């Protein structure tokens, strides 16, 4: 996640009075800004130079307030974060309002782009009314805090025990017992019930803010940040989904067959996958079902989690021996804690090593001092992984995670460092261009590296025994990647289908949950096994909803990362099948990657994509090329099966893309 920082912009009422007065005042403007007279002399280029400067000045205080709320979550830090956000939004409102003077005037192309970005940057456009702005930022901090502190408690008195997200996820990750998984899944989905009313109000307030900026609603504003019209972007997502949908359906069909064998009579619901059995709270990544889904259990396997656990245990034992094996219990807890921190840092060093092997710089020393690597014991934090640029010259960059020694967290570190290296590379751009070419680019950087984590690479860092030759090993390796990358695709799409619908009014509070599960059914072919009525607010149990992070970025990233990977493999001179490529250690690939990162958001993404890949459109053919062997294998496995599922007729579909999705077979397809 990127902090909301520079994305927070809207129109202000504050300056309207001053702008209308005949006699320009020479007094300094609000917050020590320019006087009215100074404003009137300013050219567009000078205006943007000033905004960049003011932005850089404001940024550290804003980001610090957000960092504190995320790493020390309580009512006080929530207040500080919400006020920090409000202050930043109020200033950016002024900038947007001031920029209106230049509409239709001559200016440099860079200034024109920067002015357009001012209006487009925010996923949380605040309403003009200062009281509503204050209410909005308070709600945003409250919802994120509620998520971060969420816990599911059972029992009374002495027997009372509570579990937070990490512990409930551990159940889904490791325990294949049907009822234990159901309880963990249902338990987590209680934390969002109190958010429902807040979300209703939140949606109304961001919509008001979006309309103040000239958009139909907040969803249209979210879709406007892609150097194309909002309608075109919606159509693009449908086109890309249509490209990959047959591959997803094959994976779905194979997985369902295996689940039905594992849980006789209850491994599917009307042809759909039971939400609590997918090894993941949101069914977005099925990697934890490896033992059920491994194509060839006897062929070479990759047990990265096992290797990481062994590394951690070895470190712990070494420490215990060194410190004193006879330590009292408290002492042993402290030693274990130190071992966890050391191992989490070692995992991060490993990831950094990939980036430096490409010729990119080492992470700054302050990164290691200020990052949150593991979950603190003495306070609540938002564990959802994120990467932070704290200041405009990117000299202070951090990640915030609750790292455990498992494969999922290991690859998430590579993902987060992708954001961090983007910050470092575009740190020389003016602040308004310090952003991804679009947000899907930002999400794709680290994942492009993850695609390069081949069995050979894992062997080179001591986490696997190496690549075994042969088709069976190849299919195993492909399945491992597909369980995270292909399983994700429909999930990446459905979250914002839901929010676009909420914002455009086609999904109303009285059918929030119904619409959520209709979309889960339609796109993912996933269903709950017990009724999920409107007393629940299941969207709020996924971080990005209370965190207000747009999600289409991840869908786009899961397409783009294959395009980036292919281009970097070409740059590295790779020959042979795409899925066998690792560009680890290749300086030519590194240079090309860094050149792209350095551009930030200073030009349309189509141009940036062209410079890297030669093409100007997002295209899923690299996904299909990569997974061709697996797709062929899946079709063989599914032969004779009736694949697909019958999704219930949707109670509501987002009005905005109703045309665009016409003919989209997702959900009611029969394939194979
Ligand atoms: O939120 C994230 C990252 C931070 S930007 C950990 N991701 C999405 C998610 O967890 O839902 C990465 C993949 C999708
Ligand atoms: Zn990310």
Please describe the topology of this protein.
Layout: H1 16-20, H2 36-41, H3 44-71, H4 75-99, H5 109-120, H6 130-148, E1 151-154, E2 161-164, H7 165-174, H8 178-188, H9 196-212, H10 218-223, H11 230-262, E3 273-274, H12 290-293, H13 304-323, H14 329-357, H15 365-370, E4 386-389, E5 397-400, H16 407-426, H17 439-451, H18 455-460, H19 471-485, H20 488-504, H21 512-524, E6 526-527, H22 552-571, H23 587-599, H24 605-613, H25 621-626, H26 628-637
Helix pairs in contact: 3-4, 4-6, 6-9, 7-8, 11-26, 13-14, 14-16, 16-17, 16-23, 17-22, 20-21, 20-22, 22-23, 23-24
Q: Per CATH, what is the topology of the domain at 217-303 and 453-671?
A: Neurolysin, domain 3
Q: Using the alpha-carbon principal axes, give the shape.
A: globular
Tell me, rounded to a whole number, the average pLDDT.
91
Number-wise, the strands total: 6
The hetero compounds bound to this protein are: L-captopril, zinc ion
Rounded radius of gyration (Å): 25 Å
Strand order of the largest sheet: 1-2
Query: What is the CA-CA span between the terminal residues?
Result: 37 Å
Main sheet: strands, sense, barrel? 2 strands, antiparallel
- Percent of residues in helical segments? 55-70%
> Architecture of the domain at 217-303 and 453-671, CATH level 2?
Orthogonal Bundle
Number of helices: 26
Structural class: mainly alpha
CATH class of the domain at 217-303 and 453-671: Mainly Alpha
Poorly predicted runs are: 1-25, 651-672
Q: Which percent band covers the strand fraction?
A: under 5%
């Amino acid at each position: 996640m990127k902090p909301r920082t520079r994305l927070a912009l809207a129109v202000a009422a504050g300056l309207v009075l001053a702008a209308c007065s005949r006699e320009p005042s020479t007094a300094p403007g609000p917050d020590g800004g320019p006087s009215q007279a100074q404003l009137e002399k300013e050219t567009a280029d000078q205006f943007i130079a000033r905004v960049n400067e003011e932005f850089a000045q404001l940024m550290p205080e804003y980001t610090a307030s957000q960092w504190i709320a995320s790493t020390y979550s309580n009512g006080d830090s929530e207040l500080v974060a919400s006020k920090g956000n409000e202050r930043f939004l109020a200033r950016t409102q002024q900038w947007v309002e001031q920029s209106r003077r230049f509409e239709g005037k001559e200016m440099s192309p860079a200034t024109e782009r920067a002015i357009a970005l001012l209006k487009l940057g925010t996923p949380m456009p605040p309403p003009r009314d200062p009281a509503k702005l204050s209410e909005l930022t308070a709600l945003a901090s409250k919802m994120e805090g509620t998520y971060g502190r969420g816990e599911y408690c059972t029992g009374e008195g002495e027997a009372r025990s509570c579990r937070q997200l990490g512990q409930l996820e551990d159940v889904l990750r490791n325990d294949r017992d049907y009822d234990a998984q159901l309880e963990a899944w249902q338990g987590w989905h209680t934390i969002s019930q109190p958010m429902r009313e807040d979300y209703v109000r939140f949606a109304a307030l961001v919509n008001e803010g979006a309309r103040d900026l000239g958009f139909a609603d907040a969803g249209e504003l979210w879709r406007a940040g892609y150097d194309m019209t909002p309608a075109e972007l919606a159509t693009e997502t449908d086109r890309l989904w249509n490209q990959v949908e047959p591959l997803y359906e094959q994976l779905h069909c194979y997985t369902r067959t295996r689940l039905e064998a594992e849980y006789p009579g209850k491994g599917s619901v009307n042809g759909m996958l039971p939400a609590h059995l997918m090894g993941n709270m949101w069914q977005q990544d099925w990697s934890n079902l490896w033992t059920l889904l491994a194509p060839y259990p006897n062929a070479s396997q990759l047990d990265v989690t096992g290797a990481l656990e062994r590394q951690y245990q070895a470190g712990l034992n070494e420490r215990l021996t060194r410190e004193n094996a006879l330590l009292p219990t408290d002492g042993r807890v402290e030693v274990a804690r130190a071992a966890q921190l050391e191992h989490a840092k070692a995992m991060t060093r490993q990831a950094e090593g990939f980036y430096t092997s490409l010729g990119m710089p080492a992470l700054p020393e302050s990164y290691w001092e200020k990052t949150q690597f593991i979950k603190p014991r003495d306070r609540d934090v938002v564990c959802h992984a994120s990467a932070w640029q704290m200041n405009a010259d990117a000299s202070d960059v951090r990640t915030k995670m609750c790292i455990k020694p498992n494969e999922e967290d290991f690859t998430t570190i590579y993902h987060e460092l992708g954001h961090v290296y983007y910050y470092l590379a575009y740190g020389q751009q003016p602040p308004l261009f310090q952003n991804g070419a679009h947000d899907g680019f930002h999400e794709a950087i680290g994942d492009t590296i993850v695609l390069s984590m081949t069995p050979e690479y894992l062997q080179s860092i001591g986490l696997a025994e190496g690549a075994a030759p042969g088709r069976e090993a190849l299919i195993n390796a492909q399945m491992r990647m597909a369980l995270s990358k292909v399983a994700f695709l429909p999930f990446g799409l459905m979250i914002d289908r839901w929010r676009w619908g909420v914002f455009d009014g086609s999904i109303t509070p009285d059918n929030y949950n119904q619409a959520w599960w209709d979309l889960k059914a339609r796109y993912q072919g996933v269903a709950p096994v017990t009724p999920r009525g409107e007393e629940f607010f299941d969207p709020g149990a996924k971080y990005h909803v209370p965190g207000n992070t747009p999600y289409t970025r991840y869908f786009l990233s899961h397409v783009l990362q294959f395009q980036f990977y292919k281009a970097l493999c070409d740059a590295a001179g790779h020959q042979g099948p795409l899925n066998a490529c690792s560009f680890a250690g290749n300086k030519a690939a590194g240079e090309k990657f860094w050149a792209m990162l350095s551009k930030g958001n200073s030009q349309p993404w189509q141009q940036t994509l062209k410079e890297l890949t030669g093409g100007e459109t997002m295209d899923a053919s690299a996904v299909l090329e990569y997974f061709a062997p697996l797709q062929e294998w899946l079709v063989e496995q599914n032969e004779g099966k009736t694949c697909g599922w019958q999704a219930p007729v949707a109670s509501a579909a987002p009005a905005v893309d109703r045309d665009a999705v016409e003919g989209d077979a997702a959900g009611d397809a029969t394939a194979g």
